[in-house]
Amino acid sequence: MGFITSEALAETGYVVLDDHDQASDPAEWLDLTYIPWRSSGVTRFAPLASYAGEIECNGFWNQTPPRSDKDGVWVESQVAIAPTLQRRALESGAGVGRCRVIELQPNEYADAVYNLHQDDNNRLNEEGTGWVVRGYYNLSDDTDSLLLLRSDRFDPATEIRLPLRQGSRIIVDTQRFWHAVWHRGTAPRFALITSWTSGPELDAYIAANHGDPHPPTVDLDPRLVDDAQVELHRRIEERRRVFEAQGIVMEPRADLSV
């Protein structure tokens, strides 16, 4: 039977929408409650919608009873502080699962490459229903920072690099891509991340905001890319040895970073 997927994401797996005038919105994310949660780098999260409306970030499939990343419950204390961000998450008209603001500390390109990971948005998702994807809205002004997408974690030739200026809006099938952010800055990066359910509502939203499946990708110095690949494999081997010393055997090319 398969899943209901977004036609707009069928070709490349991602689209870049028109920028939002983020400067016209209040900086509500600064007053939210954040909790530590491991992601691609040194991160904290401020949940706006979670499994049961609590300030926690766990996958819905790890809860009781488990369910897919859909039908998130709004955290009343958080949306009272950030009603504009809630409206932004709801404006697509698509179903919302987890919704949170991420705070990411500055990092290096090699850190981002090592932290590339795939999401597991569709665990327990039933065939015949909408495929879950992620919307990224950059809240802070991080002109030099990049969202990295790879179809093959270990092949830099598959890497797509999308700039994260203030107000940039990107929708990605993050179960299809290995992804992480290289945050080149001196202050934390903030972004609104929403799990959206694919369907006609999301497609209409992408069309209305001129979703581009072929936006420009940023070029990098090949030496920087090569050095990051060497560091990626060095860190993986280092971690493999740590696990091995603990009696844990890791599969070759296993994802050890998340």
From TrEMBL:
Domain of life: Bacteria
Protein name: 2OG-Fe(II) oxygenase
Lineage: Bacteria, Bacillati, Actinomycetota, Actinomycetes, Micrococcales
Organism of origin: Microbacterium foliorum
